[in-house]
Amino acid sequence: MEQQFAPKFSGNDLLNLDKFKGVIKLSVDMQPTSAFSIDVKRPWEEPPLNSHEKVEIIKQISALKYGRKKELVDKEVYFRVGA
Predict the structure, then answer these.
(1) 22 and 53 part of one domain
(2) Where are the beta strands (DSSP E) in 1-83?
(3) Cβ distance 78 to 72 under 8 Å?
């Protein structure tokens, strides 16, 4: 594996990687890129992006856009099922 990431990373570099770190080589337009290091995100350490207020606003917008009155849905089910 050392040959794949040389000359940028040595075998020692690959063996001594910290947790949640890595070395990667991508293929872009069928051409390999040079190797580079990555740091994997740890979602349990990051604060949530959406606050409670944002979640409530999204729910309200969704209800306005996609919501239907219960009576209309009940009638539609009744006519489709015929019960």
Answers:
(1) no
(2) 21-24, 27-28, 31-32, 36-39
(3) no
